[in-house]
Amino acid sequence: MNELLTVWNFIRLSGLLAYLLLTISVIGGIVSSWSILKKKKGDLLALHQMSGWAGFLSILFHLMFIWQDNYVDYTLSEILLPFADNEFPFASGIGVIAFYLFFLVLFSSDFMLKRLGKARWKWIHISVFPAWILMTLHGILIGTDSSETWVRLLYAASISLVLLLLTARLLTSRNKRHETGHQKKTMMKTIPLEEK
Q1: The Ferric oxidoreductase domain covers which part of the protein (predicted)?
Q2: What are the backbone dihedrals phi and psi of residue 47, each rounded to the nearest 5 degrees, phi first?
């Protein structure tokens, strides 16, 4: 068998691919609401959604390849239950939790949005950030390639970019709320007393 086409390499590849795709999805979601990118909103949302599902499918392949690995004999319960792994309980456990959180976000967005309503859906959708953080920690702690320079650069660039974009979005949202509140106060001052 070709040395590149081993289960071990597919485990590594699917894990890194899932990380990359889900990071792209998170970034797409963050920037899709920016007013300066209003004309590209449809494209950004499509990228956000497609990379999210492709990343989730990569996780499924990652789990399937781990289960089929002959070198480390994982049981289904070790793969699907948080902290059930005997060798790396914490690192594996946070990866499993990330998997379920990503599933919850994707499923609720594509199949439950109308039932949940926008307010509840938003609260569920925000759990993508803890999922992404747990996935990042999982990769750093247990990933075989985490000691490779290019993988370290991938994690460092991803973390920096997500933090930068998220900070910019939070500051923009805060400024919008402040401006809206200021406009309401100004309007109230200009309305004659008899109309108030």
Answers
A1: 15-135
A2: -60, -45
Give pLDDT tens digits for 111-120.
998 899 999 9
Tell me the C-alpha distance between 105 and 121, whole Å: 9
Say how many residues make up the chain: 196
Does residue 108 belong to any structural domain of this protein? yes
In a domain, 2, yes or no: no
Place of tokens 């959708």: 125
Q: What is the pLDDT of residues 73-111, one digit of tens each?
A: 889 999 999 999 999 999 999 999 999 999 999 999 999
Biggest CA–CA distance in the chain, Å, is 87
CA dihedral 186, 191, 192, 194 (to 10 degrees): -130
Domain count, the chain: 1
- Could you tell me the residue range of the domain that residue 37 belongs to? 7-195
- DSSP line for 125-190: HTTHHHHHHHHHHHHHHH-GGGGSHHHHHHHHHHHHHHHHHHHHHHHHHHHHHHHHHHHHHHHHHH
Q: Which amino acid is at 168?
A: A
